[in-house]
Amino acid sequence: MTNSLRPHGYQRAPLPPAREAEPPPPTPHRDRAGHQTGPPTAPAKPEPKQRDAFFDNAKYLAIVLVAMGHAWEPLTDGSRTAEALYMTVYAFHMPAFILISGYFSRSFDMRPHRLRRLITGIAVPYLIFEIAYTFFKRWADDDPTYDFSLLDPWYLTWFLIALFVWRMTTPIWKIIRWPIPVSLAIATLASVSPDIGDDLDLQRVLQFLPFFVIGLHMKAEHFQRIRTPRTRLVALPVFAGAVAFAYWAGPRMNSAWFYRRDSVQELAAPPWTGPVMTLAMFGCSMVLVACFFAWVPRRRMWFTALGAGTLYGYLLHGFLAKGSRFWGWYDDYAWLHKPLGEIAVTLVAATVVTLLCTPPVQRLFRFAIEPKMEWAFRKDPGEQARGRSSAA
């Protein structure tokens, strides 16, 4: 009801200011008879909120699949099995990662401390690794003319710039009425828009956008509904069917569809395939993501703590993944293209990315991936005032 329907001059009475909950009084020590035997003890402080093991497990398993997919890529030309596994994994591993990123971006707003975290946790690592990858390519690929470009993400850094853009648009997706259909429409239009270009890898930013928006609007109970015995049972034949379909489609389908970095015109496909492939791949990805979440353990595992370091594994394993191509490892060692070699490559990729997620590696590279940079920001007057009032 609007104010125009109320009598002239009517104003709603302001609510009284909220009172902070007073801490409970100290609890005195008493004996069985009820007599106080010692000075009162202050109530214990509440324990810090525990990380959810399910999401750390999901992030770790997703980053392992990312590393495996990069290791399988050079094998896809000579092995139909590797190609089928590659296409299946690429259908859901980044959508799962992006959906989780959206879920943990639900609280993002434009408050200063969140903007500082956005800069230090995403923008600065993007700049550092864009420079690092540039020098690495010049050296490892013997390409001294390769130029640094702030607007053209190289290899893995596209995800950082995409996450930056997605988070900056989070307030929009919270206020519009149909966020998921709108994001799907944007992804569809992007797939038939070749003029978008390569700046900031906007094709990927827009085509992967629906998964981030879905994550923004998911709640804990949605993940609970996925993690049921029935869903886990159904997930097995679904994954088996996906691998079988990928085995059939491998020689007939361009795997570049899964990268979502090109328009249909750049893929030499008819324009009408843009909406069809966008919606079809979105549906397939969501089904496989649900099956993946159904099998993610919900209890603490030996790898649960590594889930906090997945960005380290993601950014650092790119040097080895690209270096293996630059240095011709897959060409020099023919046995890697045999079944045992493919298994060895898979195990090495999983082991390397696991090691890169460990706490020692996090401590060593925290200056580049999670810099504090308090010197670069002004002090927030509101935070200073709250700090003074709490100290008083």
TrEMBL record:
Region feature Disordered, mapped onto this chain: 1-49
TM regions (residue ranges): 84-105, 117-136, 148-166, 232-250, 276-295, 302-320, 340-358
InterPro entries documented for this protein: Acyl_transf_3_dom, Nod_factor_acetyltransferase
Statement: the UniProt record of this protein carries the keyword Repressor: no
Domain of life: Bacteria
Alphabetic keyword roster: Membrane, Transmembrane, Transmembrane helix
One family name in Pfam for this protein: Acyl_transf_3
Domain Acyltransferase: 53-357
Alphabetized GO MF terms: acyltransferase activity, transferring groups other than amino-acyl groups
Protein name, UniProt field: Acyltransferase 3 domain-containing protein
Organism: Streptomyces sparsogenes DSM 40356
